[in-house]
Specification:
Blueprint: E1 8-11, E2 16-21, E3 24-30, E4 36-42, H1 47-51, E5 86-89, E6 99-107, E7 110-117, E8 122-130, E9 136-145, E10 154-159, E11 162-166, E12 173-178, E13 186-191, E14 196-201, E15 210-217, E16 228-233, E17 239-245, E18 251-257, E19 264-266, E20 271-273, E21 277-282, H2 285-301, E22 312-314, H3 316-319, H4 325-338, E23 342-345, H5 375-383, E24 387-392, E25 396-398, H6 402-406, E26 425-427, H7 433-450, E27 454-457, H8 477-495, E28 500-503, E29 521-523, H9 530-540, E30 549-553, H10 567-574, E31 578-581, H11 590-612, E32 614-619, E33 625-630, E34 636-643, E35 665-668, E36 673-676, H12 677-682, E37 695-703
Helix pairs in contact: 4-5, 7-8, 9-10
The structure holds (2R,3S,4R,5S)-2-(hydroxymethyl)piperidine-3,4,5-triol (DGJ).
Length: 705
């Protein structure tokens, strides 16, 4: 057997760097001009084929054309006219970098290409990392001002993490996520125009409107097959990804933190490190791309992937701001009866917070609501056998709060501008070390004082009138604020090993690989309507695994849409993620409470399949969609199928389950019916959905041979 090719290699003579993953090869060649140029990202190529790839630096065909060799990080020099991933100015006003290659390092699956500017004191390392058994390539850039103390500053207008290039394809299609509050993660698949297409957030959070994930294909890929290239940025503040399909048929995209128009000053000796921008290639279609992301997030992103996500109860939809000890205790007792494992006290428990107009920033229990503090409630929740969780929104402040009265200068603001209030609140500037220290101290104390096992970390507004009065480099707040959020979460987790954190920003406004590296799950959307949720969850699942997708069963009619749906349907939709309960249980009938308890019990039986299994999205006929979860060994399966609206006509054919093994046999464990894998994969399973709208079913299959 030939020796296994090493996952990362660099050949000094040819300047060829190669990253190998189980199903892909990524190749770069350092050109004669010192710039690392992209050669290949896609199907596995052997060494001979790689050697035959064209030289990396090819001169432009005419004086009006761009240099055709795509950069790994495009600077603002040379015949480069696409979006530049590195934009900077030296003290004398000169823009851009011209590199010479100074060396490389290969260690533990990591490749670093070291570059230095030919004339100016600037160094960059282009970093790549591959991990065993994964097709994901992680990339980032480290930029350093290498000048002496008296050399002037370097102004960085843009530092992207990576530029990605796909091979020439007959056509290009862009899959991406768009939305808004209550309608996050809507999947769009659009033909890519011959143009620059910008996906971005300018709001200081990942955003509801766009997510820093995309997938590229030639327009023919399906869930089951076809080449797909996909990338995801690990950043929770503003970001920008520019996809460039040029007139001669190439497509590249460059992306990183920050939106256009903000800059960062590097003083001599200082460095700026970009966040990680990860990419993967698969020949297996959109489903395989998602499963590869799910595995990556489980194995390399989440801090505690193996812990089961608890069935939680959250008070928000039940009580809003109207929380007090007797009311929450009653809800906790009902939640425990249903089988909840975690009780989360949401907004309204602190300061003078009886509405969204006051109290944010004052993180002490509201005396009228909790005269003896939160301990009695926390103790009762623990006595009931549940963990205790607290809602917090540490980055925000109401003007009507003791914190704001004491520290009006702590908010992000431009002194000569009117500060826009959103939800009657302003945003604290966590880039300030004193504010970061206050926030860490306050949260640390909260967790200690109240025995909190869980924090739901919310953020209900975005950045406006960004300013930092008196600071010489105010734009850095866009990046430093997010880094401080990360640091605080990391410290809290380190100091309280049992603590779990749920990411939230007015629903799903902050879900990305950066925040998930220090949280356990993300609140997907404030929209808990099960019909709307099917679409939201479909989009969310493109990148994120089910264990990170918080999904609650709430009241009917739904608070957001007014739609009335059966309890069972609501459960079957929420069971596709990390199940939670969020309704006003005091209004549920005894029958509903009993049915809910039974469904929670069923969820616990399939929880490890949902939260740790492999996910396959299915599109049935007759308005049916479904998600199939399979255990790693292929022995256990759970299929959740939904048909929100019925249609008159012939009974739809069965739901094909292509992820099953056609040579195996399966038992429907609830019905006791034996099935042949060959039939289930092709003709499908008869769902026998009940008549009418909002029909749903959970099918559990076990492989028998
Ligand atoms: C927005 C969140 O998404 C909700 O779940 C809830 O926590 C409210 N904020 C509280 O203000």
């Amino acid at each position: 057997m030939p020796p296994l090719a090493s996952p990362v290699s660099f050949d000094r003579t040819s300047g060829l760097a190669v990253l190998r993953t189980p199903n892909s090869v990524y190749a770069v060649r350092v050109g004669a001009d010192g710039s690392p140029r992209h050669l290949h990202w896609g199907a596995v190529l052997d060494t001979d084929a790689l050697g035959g790839l064209p030289a990396a630096t090819s001169p432009a065909a005419s004086s009006f054309e761009a240099d055709p060799a795509p950069d790994e990080l495009a600077s603002q020099t040379g015949a480069r006219f696409g979006p530049a991933g590195l934009q900077l100015r030296f003290a004398d006003g000169t823009r851009g970098a011209q590199w010479h290659f100074t060396g490389h390092t290969v260690r533990d699956g990591e490749l670093r290409l070291r570059l230095a500017d030919r004339r100016y004191p600037l160094a960059a390392e282009l970093c790549y990392r591959v991990r065993p058994d994964s097709d994901v390539i992680e990339r980032w850039v480290e930029l350093t001002h290498t000048g002496a103390d008296d050399s002037g500053p370097i102004t960085v207008d843009r530092l992207d993490s990576a530029s990605w290039t796909v091979p020439p394809l007959p056509d290009y299609r862009l899959s991406h996520l768009v939305g808004g509050w209550n309608s996050e993660f809507q999947l769009r698949r659009d033909r890519l125009p011959v143009a620059e297409t910008v996906l971005t957030s300018r709001c200081g959070l990942t955003s509801h409107q766009a997510n820093p994930w995309l997938a590229l294909d030639d327009g023919t890929a399906t869930e089951e097959g076809g080449e797909v290239w996909s990338t995801a940025l690990a950043w929770s503040g503003s970001w920008r990804i520019a996809v460039h399909r040029d007139p001669v048929g190439r497509t590249t995209w460059t992306g990183g933190f920050g939106h256009e128009g903000i800059s960062w000053t590097l003083q001599p000796g200082q460095s700026l490190h970009s966040p990680v921008f990860s990419g993967l290639y698969t020949p297996g279609g959109f489903g395989a791309a998602s499963r590869a992301w799910h595995t990556h997030i489980r194995t390399s992103v989440l801090p505690a992937p193996d812990r089961d996500r608890p069935v939680l109860y959250n008070s928000w939809e039940a009580t809003g701001f109207d929380v007090d000890q007797p009311g929450q205790t009653h809800l906790a007792q009902l939640a425990a009866r249903l089988g909840a494992e975690l009780f989360v006290l949401d907004d309204g428990w602190f300061g003078s917070r009886t509405s969204d107009r006051a109290g944010l920033g004052d993180w002490t229990p509201r005396p009228k609501a909790f005269p003896d503090g939160l301990r009695p409630l926390a103790d009762e929740v623990h006595r009931l056998g549940m963990a205790f969780g607290l809602w917090v929104e540490p980055e925000m402040v109401n003007r009507d709060s003791d914190l704001y009265r004491a520290h009006p200068d702590w908010v992000i603001h431009a002194p000569t501008r009117d500060a826009t209030e959103l939800r009657n609140q302003l945003m604290l500037n966590f880039a300030r070390p004193d504010v970061e220290a206050w926030a860490h101290r306050t949260l640390d104390q909260l967790v200690r004082d109240h025995g909190a096992d869980w924090l739901k970390w919310d953020a209900n507004r975005v950045v406006t009138e960004a300013g930092w009065a008196g600071h010489p480099d105010p734009d850095r707040l866009w990046i430093d604020h997010t880094r401080a959020v990360y640091r605080i979460m990391d410290r809290l987790r380190a100091d309280h090993p049992g603590l779990r954190i749920e990411a939230c920003a007015g629903g799903g406004g902050r879900a990305d690989l950066g925040i998930l590296a220090r949280t356990d799950q993300a609140w997907t959307s404030d929209n808990t309507d099960p019909v709307d949720r099917i679409g939201i969850q479909h989009g969310f699942s493109q990148l994120f695994p089910a264990q990170t997708m918080a999904a609650w069963v709430t009241d009917s009619p739904n608070i957001a849409t007014g739609r009335t749906t059966p309890l069972r349907f609501r459960f079957h939709v929420a069971m596709a993620g990390a199940l939670g309960l969020g309704g006003d249980l005091t209004t549920w009938s005894e029958e509903d409470l009993d049915e809910a308890a039974a469904l929670v019990a069923v969820y616990k039986e399939i929880r490890s399949l949902i939260q740790h299994g492999r996910q396959h999205r299915l599109n049935g006929l007759g308005g049916v969609t479904a998600v199939h979860y399979a255990s790693e060994d292929g022995a256990e399966h759970a299929i959740l199928a939904w048909r929100p609206a019925t249609r008159f006509g012939h009974a739809p054919p069965g739901l094909a389950l292509p992820a099953l093994d056609p040579t195996a046999r399966y038992l429907d464990v609830d019905e006791g019916i034996a099935h042949s894998g060959a039939v289930l994969t092709r003709q499908g399973i008869d769902l026998r959905l009940p008549a009418g709208d909002y029909a749903s079913r959970l099918i559990r299959l076990r492989r028998t041979i």
